[in-house]
């Protein structure tokens, strides 16, 4: 009997109301729209409430986590894993900034938190970040992470062999759709230039060679523009979310 991986959707901004895929009756919805202190920066009170609200749901799932402002939730999901793991992140931004305030987790620094605070993480591989942003990561942190920059991914269609040789444990995958070109994703942050087909090709190779134990997808476009633009943007993101979800369910 094939295992069925749950699909969990965290709704912070209401943007999923504009995306048809979210109405699938098999998706578990977690309403977070009433929460304070969780947008981009998550304070102690917000974190405690988030952890309480998300405690019933497994890390071993497909998690849709709204806009990139909530990407720090990957740090929470992998903190729930009980065995050594490697983390593969598809993101235009390395998300390794120093936080401005002590004790606050942020959408721009969560990878650094996983690297420094999670004793079970063995490797972190960041795919599709811009060379310019990678260069801004402090050298002592850069040496601990394997980067496949946007430029490298444009020249190598397949999952590079050194990543495959590096990983000997289950993997958790985190996808920020801002790694994609604008034709495939409209996000709150600057976009990379990977195509959806390129992303899917790499994902298929990872699924073929690794034991994927969980995955999250972020990068929705917050509902801050005029209604017609919101609907157009949501349609692009909806199409990408559908394709990613169907592919992941088929591979799982």
From TrEMBL:
<dbReference type="InterPro" id="IPR023696">
    <property type="entry name" value="Ureohydrolase_dom_sf"/>
</dbReference>
<dbReference type="InterPro" id="IPR006035">
    <property type="entry name" value="Ureohydrolase"/>
</dbReference>
<protein>
    <submittedName>
        <fullName>Arginase</fullName>
    </submittedName>
</protein>
<dbReference type="GO" id="GO:0008783">
    <property type="term" value="F:agmatinase activity"/>
</dbReference>
<dbReference type="GO" id="GO:0033389">
    <property type="term" value="P:putrescine biosynthetic process from arginine, via agmatine"/>
</dbReference>
<dbReference type="Pfam" id="PF00491">
    <property type="entry name" value="Arginase"/>
</dbReference>
<dbReference type="GO" id="GO:0046872">
    <property type="term" value="F:metal ion binding"/>
</dbReference>
<comment type="similarity">
    <text>Belongs to the arginase family.</text>
</comment>
């Amino acid at each position: 009997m094939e295992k069925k991986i749950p699909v969990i959707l965290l709704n912070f901004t209401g943007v999923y109301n504009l995306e048809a895929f979210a109405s699938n009756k098999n998706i578990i919805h977690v309403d977070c729209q009433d929460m304070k202190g969780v947008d981009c920066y998550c304070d102690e009170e917000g974190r405690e409430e988030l952890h309480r609200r998300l405690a019933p749901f497994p890390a071993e799932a497909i998690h849709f986590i709204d806009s990139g402002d909530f990407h720090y939730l990957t740090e929470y999901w992998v903190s729930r894993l009980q065995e050594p793991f490697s983390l593969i992140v598809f993101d235009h931004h390395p998300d390794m900034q120093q936080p401005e305030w002590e004790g606050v987790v942020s959408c721009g620094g969560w990878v650094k938190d996983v690297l420094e605070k999670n004793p079970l993480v063995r490797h972190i591989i960041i795919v599709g970040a811009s060379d310019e942003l990678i260069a801004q990561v402090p050298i002592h942190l850069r040496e601990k992470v394997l980067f496949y920059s946007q430029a490298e991914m444009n020249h190598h269609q397949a999952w590079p062999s050194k990543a495959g040789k590096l990983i000997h444990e289950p993997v958790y995958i985190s996808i920020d759709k801002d790694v994609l070109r604008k034709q495939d994703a409209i996000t709150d942050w600057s976009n990379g230039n990977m195509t959806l087909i390129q992303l899917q090709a790499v994902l298929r190779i990872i699924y073929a060679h690794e034991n994927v134990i969980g995955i999250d997808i972020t990068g929705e476009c917050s509902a801050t523009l005029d209604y017609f633009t919101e609907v157009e943007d949501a349609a692009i993101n909806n199409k990408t979310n559908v394709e990613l979800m169907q592919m992941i369910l088929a591979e799982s």
